[in-house]
Amino acid sequence: MTYKPELAPAFNLIELPSVGSTNDHAKQLARSGYPAFTTIWAHEQTAGKGRQGNVWTSVSGNLYMSILLRPAATAAQNGQLSFLAAVALAETVKELMSKPAQIALKWPNDLLLNGKKAAGILLEAEEDWVVMGIGVNVAGAPDGAASLKECGTEAEAGQVLEKLSARVKDLYDLWVKNGFTPIRSQWLHYAHNVGMTIQVRMPNETFSGKFLGIDDAGALE
Ligand code: BTN
Q1: CA distances in angstroms from 128 to 2, 56, 72, 171, listed in the order given
Q2: Which atom of ligand 1 sits closest to the CA of residue 119?
Q3: 46: Cβ below 6 Å to ligand 1?
Q4: Most exposed of 34, 60, 67, 180 (fewest Cβ within 10 Å)?
C-alpha cells in the first residue's frame, strides 16, 4: 500500500497523480492567492523542469514536490532558500538512510549520494512568493545519477515528503528568526569540493575558480 504522508498543520497538501510540473502548478496557485505552505505532490510530471532550462525526467516512484512560501524578505534573501532546501534534503536522507552512503551538497543546490546527483532544487519567485521545487530520485535515477534505493534507503516517496517537509518547516522558522547564518554553517558542513577548482556554468558563460564556500548572503566565495 502506498504510504500516506502526514504533514505538520501549517501545510496544505495537494496530491496529484500526474501534472506537467509541480512548480508550474504551485506558481498558478501562488498567483491565485493560496497561502504559504501549500504543497503540491505529484506522482508523475509530464513536463518536469530542471535548472537552466533542463528537463527533469519523471521516473516512477520518485518524489516531485513544490512548496509555496511567502517570505517577507528581499529577492536576494529569498535566494538563500535554495540552500535551506538543500540542507533539509541532506538531513532527511541522513535520517532515512539504512546503510552508510556519502551525502554531499554541490553548489548551488544538488544533493549527491556517493558522488552522484540524487536530488535537485528549483526555486522560482515573484515579488510576494517563492516556489521551492524539489525532485528526489527515490526509487530510480536517469543514467549517471543515483537513487536513494540503490544507495540502501528503502523509503517511499511519501515518507521522504513527510520528513522533508518537516525539515523545511523547521529550517524556515529558524531562517525567519535567525537569518542565514545557521543555514549557511549547516550547508558548509555538507559542502562538496571546498578548496577545489570548480566550473560554474552561467546562462551565457562558464568560468572556473577555487571554491571556498558561500558567504553570509549565500554568494560563492
Ligand atoms: C535541477 O537540479 O536542475 C533542479 C531540478 C528540480 C526538479 C523539481 S521536481 C519538482 C519541481 N517541479 C519541477 O518541474 N521541477 C522541480
Answers
A1: 35, 26, 8, 20
A2: 2
A3: no
A4: 60
